[in-house]
Predict the 3D structure of the following.
Amino acid sequence: MSPRPDLSTRLTQLGEVLVSLASSPIPSHQFQILADFAPHLLPCDYLALCLMDPDEQAYHVHSLYGAEEVGPLRDRYPLEYGLVGEVMATGRIQSLPAFNTTITSAPGLDGVWHAAGLRRILVAPLRQGKRRIGALVVAARPGTLPGEQYDTGDQQIARLLMAGLASTLETARLYQISADERSTLAAVLSSTRDAIIVVNQQGRILLANPAVQEMLHLDPDSLVSRPLAQAVAHPTLQRLFAEGARSVADIALDEGRTAQASLVPVRTDYGEQIGWAAILRDITLLKELEQVKSDFVNTVSHDLKNPISTILLGAELLVQSGPLNKNQRFIQERLINTAGYMEELVTDLLDLGKIEMGLEMEMKPVDAAAMMDAVVGLFRPDAEAAQLSLVFQAPEPAVVVGDQIRLQQAYRNLVGNAIKYTPAGGQVNIQVQVRRRQLPAGEGKPGTGAIYIHIADTGYGIPAEAQPYIFDKFYRVETGATRDIRGTGLGLAITKSIIEAHGGRIWVESSAGSGSTFSISLPAAGELSNS
Ligand code: ADP
């Protein structure tokens, strides 16, 4: 029996063991370090680490040293079982120089250790704050231990060793959670057919999943840590990342395929933004279907236009064939009304097709305020007939780059609707404003500005549940006072397409019964003077 080294030497050794423990986040490595070094710190013939399994309300005994001399142990023991159970429950270290008292309470565990001749035992709790995790067991046969008992120095070492182990086990647990999350994420990223590219705040690629290979023909591994602007030669994708705003854009791929790219911010759990992710979905099939559908609608509309005009003309000319009786006049009016509605519908459908295809647009600087002034003038007689006051304010020119005919069409739809959906005695208020402040990302270039147009009415309003759909084709609010007002349900869809083709946005604020405000923002043309 050699004497114990002095406490300061053992504390130095303990420090080294703790550093080794902290160097690996893998529990089996930590067990091996304990098995190799703990017997030098705490003289013993047997050493075990007991770890709790909270789900099973039990603990497992991992014999790390001297196991060969000890009889077989069970897989798990009930939580309160034996000396270990007691130490875990109370959180108090136990050092017994004559270990035999608890044999009867735990014949399956304490009894096995006793039967192996172990008589001196030290059991130290392993805790994280107040939470019990397990216990360290060191035991010796008579003749092994100087002084034949674990003294206060041993107890101090055991306590410090358990404190260190508790924190490394916690690190291991967190490491395991994050490793599991990483593997789950990797599995999802590699199985999805959407291509995903994540870029940090400095524009360097953090992650590219395997689908990037198929969609963009780029090796995902070779992209990581390169600047996106150099590594991915797709102008639209580069523009999306450069603008750095939540947005969606179509990207032309090779072989006539199309992907829809959505840019979303990537944030930590604490809300700190660490970069942007672009998710690219192949929408070729959808685009083709959309094309087939709009080709069909365009062809049909085109083929219908002439026959409808003929019917309309014929109905209008009926009077020339002689005086009509009351019944004939009624039929003629219905004919003119229906054919007129069909003509409107066909014209709207053809217009929508052209706007969506970007046809017949001549972009040049135009004054949105002057254009609105002209549209308001056009509607004055209608407003007067409907007993509405029509107020127009535009304090300064508001120049945008756009197609005059289409923009006027958009204004006509909005002003026309405001008049159509406001009962007599109401007001329609139209304002054109120029805003010079720096724009939110995604609305024009910084340093320029935007033109805002607000068309506010005091009319019937739009119920909240209908608002998400009113810009959809053919959607009409078929309830309440507006049900019987004639319309094709295409005006707002056309207006939205026109505004978006000009790089702008349109939105509505409304509540049923108290009016609606339709607003448009359009990028202002060029740098704005500060006047
Ligand atoms: P429509 O030809 O039916 O007017 P729109 O596409 O222009 O078609 O408008 C769609 C629907 O939105 C309309 O049917 C109407 O219910 C509602 N709407 C549009 N503008 C207004 C408004 N200013 N006030 C109330 N409802 C409106």
Summary: The chain has 14 helices and 18 strands. Residues 413, 417-418, 421, 457, 459-462, 470, 475-477, 482, 487-493, 516 surround adenosine-5'-diphosphate (CB under 6 Å). The chain has a mean pLDDT of 89. The longest strand covers residues 131-140.
